[in-house]
Specification:
This protein has 200 residues and is α/β, with parallel strands linked by helices. The protein has a single domain, classed as Alpha-Beta Complex (Maf protein), CATH 3.90.950. It is built from five helices and seven strands; from the N terminus they run E-H-E-H-E-H-E-E-E-E-H-H. The chain has a seven-stranded mixed beta sheet. The protein is globular and about 50 Å long.
């Protein structure tokens, strides 16, 4: 891991960047948002998380000249055939709005008794923009969607994402608790393990 000292995160989501920075801290990698290089967000036209994450990573790396990490994640709801899925961030359309996305999700589930859902995350790390062998890891986090929000932490759908085994929503967890068990925490844990054992 000698060669990577700075890593561009292909995101402008402050919550996501904070989570990634914390989880990569043991590797002493400086994590920088793509906004520091004036890298604009790109379209996410693909139907899979991995294709979107790879496109974002390549774009950020190409614009910054540095290794880049792309993340694509979302909530997949059983009763909605996996929706919002890759469209989670823009479920209620543009501009992106957590409040409107959550409202649409709750309305979509009004007449559903099956509230099972899971968060899913794919992380892609490219050494350079044309890296032919990117590192790809993923993670999932299972729970259910509740009708009334609880908690003030996290972001996205966290206030409605309930974890029965903890009797808490994701938004009621501390950042440390969330990072230990979340979809992104699981994926980043896999990435850290790879980077510690492979020369990169």
């Amino acid at each position: 891991m000698d060669s990577v000292q700075k890593l561009v995160i292909a995101s402008n989501n402050a919550g996501k960047i904070a989570e990634i920075s914390t989880l990569l801290a043991p590797l002493a990698i400086e994590v920088v948002s793509q906004s520091a290089f004036n890298v604009s967000e790109i379209a996410e036209p693909f139907v899979t998380f991995v294709e979107n994450a790879l496109a974002k990573a390549r774009h950020a790396s190409r614009c910054s000249g540095l290794p880049a990490l792309g993340d694509d994640s979302g909530i997949c709801v059983a009763a909605l055939n996996g929706a919002p899925g890759v469209h989670s961030a823009r479920y209620a359309g543009e501009p992106k709005s957590d409040a409107r996305n959550n409202l649409k999700l709750i309305e979509s589930l009004q007449n559903q008794t099956d509230r099972r859902a899971f968060y899913y995350c794919v992380i892609v790390l490219v050494r350079h923009a044309d890296d032919p062998q990117p590192i790809i890891v993923d993670g999932s986090w299972h729970g259910e969607v509740i009708a009334q929000p609880r908690g003030t932490g996290g972001f996205g759908y966290d206030p409605y994402f309930f974890l029965p085994e903890l009797d808490k929503t994701a938004a009621e967890l501390t950042a440390e608790q969330k990072n230990q068990i979340s979809h992104r925490g699981t994926a980043l844990g896999k990435l850290v393990a790879i980077l510690r054992t492979e020369s990169y």
